[in-house]
Task: structure prediction
Amino acid sequence: MCSHPRPGRAPHTPFSTEFKGGARAVRERLRNLFLGPRRQGRALVLCVAVLALFTGGMVACRTAVRETPPASDTAVPPLMMLPPTAELFGITGVEAALYEAARWAHNPYGWQNGTLALPFVGVYASYEDGNGDTVYLCNLWTRNYYDFLATRGANSGGGGGPAAITVAGDGSSGRFRSVKSAADGEGWAQSIRDLCAPVPGLADQILEGTIAYTLTTPDTDTLLAQYVQAVIGAVDETNVNKEAAADAYLAGLIAAGPGDRLYDAAVSAFGFGAWDHVTYAMEQTESVETRPAYILRATGEEITEAEYTALNLDVWTGVAEENGFTVGELLDAAAFDAPGQVSAPEGERAARARELFLAHIGQLPACYTSVSTGDAWEVELAFHGQTVGSDGSDHYHFVVSNRRGVWGVEVPLTWDGHNPDSPTGD
Result:
């Protein structure tokens, strides 16, 4: 299934495209249904129930979390991505100039939006341009690691091709001047010949695949491992798995000793020696953070936006063609009157379109929903074998997750307190 709303949690539908008017820009409306800035204070043109069905059962749940006490010092801080510069990886000289040229040519700001773009440059040949600079004829290729903090590089794609990179002087300063890439599609071969004209015979070798690199920047697998180390950190005995993270955090709570707010609260509720007789049980739960995802309904596999669009559009196109409608008419059939909006189509044809729409919404193969950014486990504590304190407080727990790449505390120790004035209960 594509959506799993939890009891007591209101579904949330972050769509931005309004279906109104004629059959215009159908593909773009499908692509952008749940993308872009959320518009506040506008009436919805589609009935939410119908919309959820149209999108393949989409119910993107906004994760609700109880307000917790201030995080203790042992909680893992949130991580931020760093720009993947040559300096970060220790790349210097000519390789740094080539690397930075490639980085700025392809997706230089992807890291600000969660995508880690790592370039690779393989040099075929070089020549001086007559201005004291050096031109490197090379293969420039970039791999994009999407949603990096959640996947640590598991979701990636890339592309590139021949290019000419001009560096300052001989390149030893690490500075570049320009990048010119070969054309895509028609004219590709000729553009390679134009780039390589100063080096006779090179273009034919590139096109035939009979030439080896004379110089390369570090491969993307090596760079990815270094970036994980720099941003996420090393895997050790405290974060290798959920049990290790729970044990490490619990050890910190115990070591805090008398005088610590959390330590003293448990002693007050469960008596002397509470922390000497503490055990825990773990149960999988939702991560505090979720991310949007396109899911194949049959398998639960995550797919790309392009695949999601194509799969669902194929269904509506087939239904429309078989019944003498346009795709736009079927989609507009879901509209209803709303203040300030165009009314839903009326008449016998519109009614028939609406019937077709409702009859086929269950056939959509893909849906848009929200998924956790990592595995999360709730760790419930028991003191002296008890989970309910003498003051009525209970459910002493914290949450560990791997959404930052390694296991650590996501929600620090909290509990359900029956005293409404208590600063430590929920």
